[in-house]
Amino acid sequence: HKFRSSQKTGIQTALRLLLCITLSLAIVPSTVSAGDEIPGAPQTRPIALTNCHVHPIVGPTIRKGTIVFENGRITAVGQGVLLTKNTEVIDLNGQHVYPGLIEAYSQIGLEEISAVRASRDDSETGSINPNVRANISVNPDSEVIPVTRANGVLIAVSAPRGGRVSGVASVMQLDGWTYEDMTLKAAAAMVVNWPTPPSTGESSGLKVLRELFDDARAYQAARNADTGRQEFDIRLHAMLPVIAGDLPLLVIANAAPQMQAAVSFAVEQKIRLIIFGGHDAEFCAALLKKHDVPVIIDSVHRRPSRRHEPYDVAYTLPARLSNAGVKFCISGSGRNETSNLRNLPYHAATAAAHGLRRSEALRSVTLYPAQILGIADRVGSLEPGKDATLIVTTGDPLETDTHVTQAFVQGRSVQLTSRHTRLRDKYLEKYRQQK
């Protein structure tokens, strides 16, 4: 009995000691490791970028111009801009200023390493998940974010995937402490994986979609009746902005029959539509143009889909859609996936090298995705009243030898260091030590 009593006392003493050590460690001030990029601090006074070439996108380049922003918004763009006394002046010495590049589709913040299941939070179980929202699952500490941001991509769509109806894609700014800080537009589009024709039978994908829309309209009618008997349904409730025309359907489709069926469905349901992928979009150009359906080209750096296609079929697709009058923008997704979104400007550059006008190539990763996603009133060009989300570069951002020297997100100066720059510095030091 005495042995058991003393043993119990010893265990209690050890537990108390362990608790004290844990609490003491918890109150020790933590230090920020070299791998933690600090989000930019809010703007406290006007900032003027002077002696620079400003590329507003919506107009001609302003040589030796000035761009001023205050409280996160652009207030003036041009030459000979008058500055107030408290303005912080940054002389760029002939560098270039562009709006931040926009990635129109990705899983950024939802997927870290595709081969590691525990680092993927991009899909839910089940096939019909319209209630899923991407932004609340975005990890602000993802290593992919600073890597992507360092090459000028300051805004990206983060989209769920999997199933038939994947959920709601969100537009995210690539800087912020929390997902709330990063969210530019919480609901940008409802993502749907369009069924591959022929899609027939009781369990066909098209039948499932039609039933979902019918159920959503019935649910809406029951809720509007205000009888108090209709219980809240989180999935059907998430469909209400879609059937009201406020939230577009972002359909993942590449084959011409898929796109034709998707457009027919959108006309039938009287909803807005965006195509992502669009490998055969040229064959549906007249239909897409007629119904004002934009296309997000999933990747320019991809191989032909069919053996008989020429090697450059993907490289020339943006030029062919532009010539056909179809609204489009370019994404760096597809084959490269989220980890290589930093290469977005080079997809546009390849399109420019294969027939797309240079100005159009630049708009395809700035203004055009902003228009398609419904955020052009805030980003995509450098105009007074818009967000001061912009990059400073040594040259054309579509050129691989151009460096991004500074970046601002809503006026906040953001760090351009990343895992890649740290590895670069590490091995530069190795070679310096070997000399």
Topology, pairings included?
Blueprint: H1 2-27, E1 47-54, E2 62-70, E3 73-78, E4 88-91, E5 96-99, E6 101-103, H2 144-149, E7 153-158, E8 165-173, H3 179-182, E9 183-193, H4 205-225, H5 234-238, H6 240-243, E10 249-253, H7 256-269, E11 273-277, H8 285-290, E12 295-297, H9 313-324, E13 328-330, H10 344-353, H11 358-363, H12 367-373, E14 390-393, E15 404-409, E16 412-413, H13 419-434
Parallel strand pairs: 1-4, 1-5, 6-7, 9-10, 10-11, 11-12, 12-13
Antiparallel strand pairs: 1-2, 2-3, 5-14, 7-8, 8-9, 14-15, 15-16
Helix pairs in contact: 9-10
Q: Your description of this structure?
A:
The chain is α/β, with parallel strands linked by helices and about 425 residues long. Helices cover about 30% and strands about 20% of the residues. The chain has 13 helices and 16 strands. Strands 1, 2, 3, 4, 5, 14, 15 and 16 form an eight-stranded mixed beta sheet that branches. The chain is globular, with a radius of gyration of 25 Å. The termini are far apart. Residues about 1-5 and about 25-35 have low confidence and may be disordered.
